[in-house]
Amino acid sequence: MEKPVAKPKSNLSSYCPSKTIIIAIAISIIIILAIIIPIFIVFGKPYQLQGTSSVTDSYSPSQTTSNPTTATTTVPSSSPQTSYKPILSIPDELWGYYEVRPGAHMFWWFYGYRGSQLRSQMPLILWMSGGPGYSSVGKGNFGQVGPIQLDLKPRNKTLIKRANVLFIDYPVGTGFSYVDKMSAYSRSDNEVAQDLYRTFAHVLHLLPSLQLLPFHLVAESYGGKIGSMFGNLLLQAKKEGRIQCNFISCILSSPLLSTADTIEFAGPYLNAFSLIDAMQSQQLLNQANSIKQYLQQKRGIDATAVLEQSLERMVNISSKANLHNVINYLSENPFTTLVKRNYTDIQSLQNNPTIAPTAAYAVMNNQIRHKLGIVPRHVKFASSNILVYALLRESICYPSIANAEAILNANVSVLIINGQFDAFVNGISLQKTIKKINWPYMKLFQSSKKAVMKDDAGRIVGFIKKYRNLSFMTMIDKGHSPILSVPDSYIGSVQN
Ligand SMILES: *[C@@H]1O[C@H](CO)[C@@H](O)[C@H](O)[C@H]1NC(C)=O
Ligand SMILES: *[C@@H]1O[C@H](CO)[C@@H](O)[C@H](O)[C@H]1NC(C)=O
Ligand SMILES: *[C@@H]1O[C@H](CO)[C@@H](O)[C@H](O)[C@H]1NC(C)=O
Ligand SMILES: *[C@@H]1O[C@H](CO)[C@@H](O)[C@H](O)[C@H]1NC(C)=O
Ligand SMILES: *[C@@H]1O[C@H](CO)[C@@H](O)[C@H](O)[C@H]1NC(C)=O
């Protein structure tokens, strides 16, 4: 779980589509002119539209159920109903909205591979950020791996030089994805995974050539939980013949597969790092135990409240160590505001966000939304959304080990990556979580020898343990986003 950042107020109840659209068009024209002209001055030329069009689609009804404790099995219906023509060649770039449930609009953004090889021979990657509520478009695309950085300069080491890449802003309410009414927000992780699946299936229907490409799922942190749920839905849908997709691998970077495990071992981890003492470690263990008990009693909100408190305590007692990278310190405790929130007071969550949106993402509400041209005016991009988080508190702590298990047993290769300095999704807990996966070769995996990983210059960057389709990597000197520092050659090697 990452610290959610509040989304600025959007007045949902007074939103009226027909009026707003007319006003929005008029105002956007004025704003576009006002924005584009200064960009010309600042950046020389505006951020280019490269052979692009946008697509919106509408609701396809489906009934879904939700049970956070077990592997996800209900595959939502995804057959797109409305008129659009499938696009046969793989485009340079394409984005759109898909209404996954009435009033729930998911935003997706696809980039075709750019390089010397044939686009149709390169894989497809779905890149998922964490949160809950971190925008994959803001953080993943602009912040980490897309062709353009948040400062609008081109990124040298972009993923689209290696693959076709898709970003989806999930859960709905995050990034450019939005709801028309409060009731359209996701209320469970299962629903989040189903919304994601529906959007993914929509994009594959729209761009059928993607169905044949080797598909790799890459997910970070809480994205690792939703990603494993999504991956299992995808496999079920494949089995039922409802989707064609060549699902090859699932890469989970610091995945929050089991919150109880992460908290159980955060104490020993911080203690081994001399940041807390044995007594403090024991107190954290008590909190981990109450998370487990609450989960057994199906009291998800109570479990999440303890999670928030234990994160706050860890930062407090370690002199504000950054749990995502413990060799650094924070100036203030990011979890104090999370603990103090009144999560039943939705109005105050909407009206009084005490955590400000990150300034780094301002560009999303200006140049980028104008480039996209389809983001409704009332939708304000925020790097994450406190309401999304608030409404998911019931399900955040439930584990998703069963989904990772289903993916591995379906012969999809699974790579789990740990950052050595990540105290939250720490290496000890990940090893324990992996051990719980029921897989015929788990004993052989456990007893296989770990190998040293080196970068191109021959420096040691980490360790890898691999048996058949399961790999576990530890990136040394790295924190909560270890995927970004794995040398390319190793990513390929674990995928047969
Ligand atoms: C990207 O590559 C160019 C040319 O190789 C180099 O001048 C520039 O500094 C690089 N930018 C970044 C952000 O690394
Ligand atoms: C953490 O420190 C803050 C500020 O000093 C304090 O208000 C809060 O009660 C502390 N929380 C815990 C769990 O120790
Ligand atoms: C939280 O908000 C709800 C709804 O506004 C209110 O009934 C409740 O008293 C508040 N709780 C606290 C502890 O302030
Ligand atoms: C996975 O691969 C193994 C070994 O190649 C094979 O025996 C098994 O049937 C496969 N399972 C599935 C679900 O494809
Ligand atoms: C790994 O998964 C692939 C499918 O992606 C399957 O063909 C293969 O048998 C599996 N490998 C092993 C060693 O189990």
From TrEMBL:
Transmembrane segments: 21-43
A molecular-function term among this protein's GO annotations: serine-type carboxypeptidase activity
A UniProt-annotated Pfam family: Peptidase_S10
Keyword terms, alphabetized: Carboxypeptidase, Glycoprotein, Hydrolase, Membrane, Protease, Signal, Transmembrane, Transmembrane helix
E.C. number(s) listed in UniProt: 3.4.16.-
Bias type Low complexity, positions: 58-79
Gene Ontology BP annotations: proteolysis
Family annotation (PROSITE patterns): CARBOXYPEPT_SER_SER
InterPro entries linked: AB_hydrolase_fold (IPR029058), Peptidase_S10 (IPR001563), Ser_caboxypep_ser_AS (IPR018202)
Keyword Hydrolase part of the UniProt annotation: yes
Chain positions covered by the region annotation Disordered: 54-79
Gene3D superfamilies attached to this UniProt entry: alpha/beta hydrolase
PANTHER family in the record: RETINOID-INDUCIBLE SERINE CARBOXYPEPTIDASE, SERINE PROTEASE FAMILY S10 SERINE CARBOXYPEPTIDASE
Family, per entry: Belongs to the peptidase S10 family.
UniProt name for this protein: Carboxypeptidase
Originating organism: Trichoplax adhaerens (Trichoplax reptans)
